[in-house]
Design goal:
By secondary structure, this protein is α+β, with helices and mostly antiparallel strands. It has a single domain, classed as RNA polymerase II/Efflux pump adaptor protein, barrel-sandwich hybrid domain (OB fold (Dihydrolipoamide Acetyltransferase, E2P)). The chain has four helices and nine strands, in the order E-E-E-H-E-E-E-E-E-H-H-E-H. A six-stranded antiparallel β-sheet has the order 1-2-3-9-8-5. Strands 4-6-7 form a three-stranded antiparallel β-sheet. The radius of gyration is 13 Å and the shape is globular.
């Protein structure tokens, strides 16, 4: 299972890459494996400012629909439009082309509450 050490993680199985005051967010390799084949990603919160842990969208797999929770407070500035036509990128490349949103985060102190790769491995028993 792939858990890159340069990323931060949430208990909701999302990964976060910090780049200045922008956070790139997707779901982890573990999460996509548990969900199975992703058939649809819906994010209708672009240009909205949300608080940490608010629902920013959903991911739909063959057998289930799961909410996506914002890992950091801030404005959702971009959705990965390529997922509209190719949601399976979340399965094939969860940490690359399968990214979901970019957030201009407002509370940098919240980053300290995210999990390290080692903490995330412990959470999922890897």
């Amino acid at each position: 299972m792939n858990i890159p050490s340069n990323l931060k993680y949430t208990k909701d199985h999302e990964w976060v890459k910090i780049d200045g005051d922008i956070a790139i967010v997707g779901i982890t390799d573990f999460a996509q494996g548990e969900l199975g084949d992703i058939v649809y990603v819906e994010v209708e919160t672009v240009d909205e400012t949300l608080d940490i842990e608010e629902i920013f969208g959903t991911v739909e797999a063959v057998k289930t629909v799961s909410d996506l929770f914002l890992p950091l407070s801030g404005e959702i500035i971009e959705f990965n439009d390529s997922l509209e036509d190719e949601p399976d990128k979340v399965n094939s490349d969860p940490y690359g082309d399968g990214w979901m949103i970019k957030i201009k985060f407002s509370e940098s102190s919240e980053i300290d509450n995210l999990l390290s790769a080692d903490d995330y491995k412990a959470l999922i028993g890897a």
